[in-house]
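Notes from hallway chat w/ T.B., transcribed later so I don't forget. T.B. wanted the structure written out for a chain they're using in a teaching module, and asked if we could keep both sequence and structure tokens in one place. Agreed to drop them here.
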Amino acid sequence: MLLALGFAATCPLLHADLKAALAEHDLGKRSKLALDNANAALKAAREAYQKGDSAAVAEAAAEIEESVELARDSLESTGKNPRKSPRWFKHAEIETRDLLKKLETLQHDFGFEDRPALDKAKAHVQRVHDDLLTGLMEGKSK
């Protein structure tokens, strides 16, 4: 019972971290904070699954998607060319690649019938990763 209350208390903290990322004025740092939040949500999903809370797993998967989307939107809002100013873009590309690996591992740890719970989040992170990688390799289209 206490463990469930402890987890329920951490779920609002994830949204609070995303709000902290939104409050960051530096768009590069905002993307980093959003990706940090995505990793925290992934850990929360693992803990929720171990406790058998499928609703919390779905909530954490949605949080991962929101966080990754905020990171991408923040980087696009900089207006910078990823090839000429790759610092934050490369960081985001590496973080999303690592997040994909962790999502894959977590999905394999799930029971067969529970695996589809992460499909949407995984596909979204993959699209964002591919967009970042394309930007770094090709640069902005003119």
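Follow-up for T.B.: The chain has five helices and no strands. Might be a good example for the class.
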